[in-house]
Every structure is written in C-alpha cells, then in structure tokens.
Automatic annotation (TrEMBL):
It comes from Nocardioides islandensis. This is EccD-like transmembrane domain-containing protein. Residues 173-459 form the EccD-like transmembrane domain. The chain crosses the membrane at residues 120-138, 150-167, 174-191, 197-215, 227-246, 252-273, 304-331, 351-367, 379-396, 402-423, 444-464. Keywords: Membrane, Transmembrane, Transmembrane helix. Residues 90-113 are annotated as: Disordered. InterPro entries: EccD_transm.
C-alpha cells in the first residue's frame, strides 16, 4: 500500500517542498507514505489510520521504539527518507534505562547502587581481548624466555580475573576472559610452524571454550554468549584434531573453516531466538497466539498470554547470541583466509583457494544484508572485507600492467555505481526485485563456495594426477 500525505498542517511550508518517503508498520500491515518535510507525528498517524481503517489514531514510534511527540516535526527528531516508523495502538511504557546507574534495596534495607555495562565498557574490553591475542602471538615468537614467561603469567591472571563473578561489569569481563585463556595457551605451545598451526589453534580454541564454560558456571548472565565461545572453541578443536589424525594438509582445515564460517552466518539467526512453546500455543484452548501480544490485566476472557518480561528476555538472549556468533565468524574468517592463501602453494590449489576466499567473502557480505541487528551486520561485513583484503594482498603482487588497467577501470565503474545507488537509497528508493536477486546470488555464491573446497583443499589435483 502507498499513499501521499497532502495536508500536513501549518508547518508543512516551513521546510520547503521536500518530501520524506517513509514506511509505517502498524497492526494492520505496512504502508508507504510520501510525507512533507514539515509534517508532524500526528499527521502520519491520521494518514495511517485513514488508509488502514483504524478506529482511532495510533501512536507513532521510531524503529528503535522511541515515541514521537504529537507536535514534534519529524525532521527535528532525525527522521529521514527511507526510515521505518511504527504505529501502535497500545499505551507507551518507558523502558528502564540499563545504561545508567540504578539503585536497589539490599538485604539489610540499605540502598546499593548497580551500574550496567555500556558500549564504552564493551569497547574497552574488546580492545583488551584483541591486545591479549596479539600478546599471545608475540610471546609465542619471542626469543626471550623471560618475556615469554611474563606474558603467559599476565594472560593467565587476566583470564582468572575475568571469570570471577565480581563487580558491575562481570558479564562483559567474563566474555573477554576466554580470549586471555586462548592467548595464554597459544603462547605456552609456542609453535608457529605452518604444518602444526591447525592443531595449535585447535588447542587454543579448547582453552577458550574451557574458560567460557567456567565463566558460564560461575555467572548465569553470560550463558548466551558463553555458549557461542564453547561451540566455536570446541568445534575448532574437534575439526583440527580430526584433520591431524587423518594426516590432512593444513589447506584442508583452512578451507573447511572458511566455508563453515560462511554457512554459520546463515544458520545462526534461525537458532538464536528460542521461543518457549507456551508463548506460541495456548495449551488450554489449543490456539496459536500472537507473539506481539503483551501482558494485560486479568479479565473475564482468560489469563495472561505473553509476559512483557519474557519477550525482553528472549530478545536479549537472541541479540547476544547473534552478536557473539558474528564476532566468531569474523575471527575465523580473518584467520583462515590468509592462512589458506599461504598454504595453497601449487598452481591448481592456489586458483581454488583464491576462488574460495572470493566467494566466501561475497557470501558473508550478502548474508550481512539480511541482518536487522546493526552490530552483527557490521561484524559480518568486516568478515567479508577481511577475506577480500587477504585475497587482494595475495593477488596484487602477480598482476601485470594490462590486468592493473582492467582493475582500475572496474574500480571506477563500481565506485560510480555505488554513488548512484547510495543517492537513490537516501531518497527512499527500495527495490524488491534487487532484493530477490541478492537472495538468489547468495545461494549461488554459497553453492560455488562449497564446490571450490574440492579444488582449494587439493582433492581435485589428487584425482587429476591419479587419472593422468
């Protein structure tokens, strides 16, 4: 459905003739509206109610759930073309701000303060985990035994302090502890030989999984993301151990890890949100209930369907799993891509490895477009770009002058196309046709990436040599 909002009130003339292309999602579906720049939230609500046939004017919210004041200009609230607004007929309940310091009454009746972890603390601890990984790498390559021992001791102490369920930021700190434990294990092994590196990384993943299991046992608040640590580290150890027992070359391990990371980006969203059956099916009446239902006062018609706290808990758990999984995909892709390109030393294997890295990077970028979660989407885009950067680093030194010219022309044409698409998207352009083509391309890229494993791992070359 689409509509044009003509009479937008007396403020419509203040902002000129510019219009905003908005999508309003409400209880009766989504409606596309072309709104004057001077419109207010009430104008949008009236138009939606008129087109959707609502008996009353709904309340208008942003896509993040922030209410828009009735007399507030949309542009003053940061609303732009292409944005999504939500129309709701329920009363707004302001959520509790978890990013500020709140108070609670302790057992003795005194008030104790509690601060939840915000984005700054998450950023700081993420940087600490990255520094721990670098410390483990340099400690493993250090020629000084004293510096090596000091680095290992510091990493072990950091892992121990991270799993302790103490402090306001214990949940975030516990999720950084596995990185310290894995870095300490890598430094203790002190083995960077390419042939032994897969097993070393597998043991590193096992150490990180053990630290995550300890953190999960001590603090239930880290359950969702700790499960991702455990699954990733345990899976890495199993894969590398089996490859070592089967005496497979390292390129087989890196190829499988890269493809599994690409597939995980598509599989995880379907497993992240686990809604209890009691919220979806009314066992008393055997009727499917709406997930969007909220807790309401008791009446003659029956009991509460879905408590609001349960909705928040399921959404928060799913968000944590998706974010942690995207970070795991980024880590695996950033490690496996350059190692695969380096391990493929024969001509046929090298071609297969480059094709595999190219396709896996494209698959991750295409998978990211379907994510509504901002952090996970950015992490998956970084994973795809990391793969392409590793490929460019391996391909650039062998390009000829003619190939360089072709790359330059293609880059300029792609840049012009991206500018045109960005301008059209900023003006509210949406294309279901291109969206469907992107989904088809994602499936095709994934299929070819799985097929490229046969070439990148060396199986195709072995079959060719055995039959020739």
């Amino acid at each position: 459905m689409a509509g044009h909002l003509g009479g937008a009130g007396s403020r419509a003339g203040r902002r000129g003739d510019q219009s905003l292309a908005l999508t309003v999602h409400g209880p009766l579906g989504s409606i596309d509206l072309l709104v004057p720049a001077g419109a207010v939230a009430t104008d949008v609500a009236r138009e939606y109610a008129a087109q959707a046939g609502l008996p009353a004017i709904p309340l208008i919210y942003t896509e993040l759930g922030e209410p828009l004041a009735a007399d507030e200009l949309l542009v003053d609230h940061g609303v732009d073309s292409g944005d999504l607004l939500v129309a709701s007929t329920t009363v707004h309940r302001p959520p509790r701000d978890s990013s500020v310091r709140t108070t609670r009454r302790g057992p003795g009746g005194s008030l104790t303060s509690r601060a939840e972890a915000g984005p700054i603390s998450v950023l700081v601890l993420s940087l600490a985990a990255a520094v721990a990984v670098l410390a483990g790498w340099f400690a493993a390559r250090s020629a000084s035994d004293r510096l090596h021992d000091v680095a290992v001791d510091v990493l072990l102490v950091g892992a121990f302090l991270g799993v302790l369920p103490i402090g306001a930021y214990r949940h975030v700190r516990a999720l950084a502890a596995p990185a310290f434990a894995g870095a300490a294990a890598f430094a203790l092994l002190a083995e960077t030989d390419p042939e032994k590196l897969p097993l070393v990384l597998g043991i590193t993943g096992l150490a990180a999984a053990v630290a995550a299991a300890v953190a999960r046992a001590l603090d239930a608040g880290t359950d969702a993301a700790a499960r991702v640590w455990m699954a990733t580290g345990g899976g890495l150890f199993v894969l590398t151990s089996l490859a070592t027992l089967a005496d497979l070359p390292p390129r087989v391990t890196w190829s499988l890890l890269l493809v599994l990371a690409m597939l995980a980006a598509r599989v995880v969203p379907g497993l992240a949100v686990d809604v209890p059956d009691s919220f979806l099916i009314d066992m008393d009446r055997l009727a499917i209930t709406a997930w969007s239902a909220r807790e309401r006062p008791r009446s003659r018609r029956g009991r509460v369907v879905v408590p609001e706290a349960a909705v928040v808990a399921v959404a928060a758990r799913g968000s944590a799993i998706i974010t942690a999984s995207a970070a795991a995909v980024l880590a695996v892709s950033a490690v496996a891509s350059p190692l695969l390109l380096e391990a493929a030393d024969l001509p046929i294997d090298r071609v297969g490895a480059r094709v595999l890295v190219l396709l896996c990077g494209a698959g991750l970028l295409l998978s990211a477009r379907s994510y509504r979660h901002t952090a996970a989407r950015q992490l998956l885009r970084m994973a795809g770009l990391f793969s392409w950067v590793a490929l460019a680093r391996a391909v650039v030194p062998v390009l000829t002058d003619g190939q360089w010219l072709g790359v330059a022309v293609a880059a300029v044409a792609l840049a012009v196309l991206l500018v045109l698409v960005a301008v059209a998207t900023g003006r509210g352009w949406r294309s279901a046709w291109w969206s469907r083509r992107a989904e088809v391309a994602e499936g095709v890229v994934g299929s070819f990436a799985i097929a490229a494993v046969v070439v990148a791992a060396g199986f195709f070359r072995i079959l060719w040599e055995s039959t020739s």
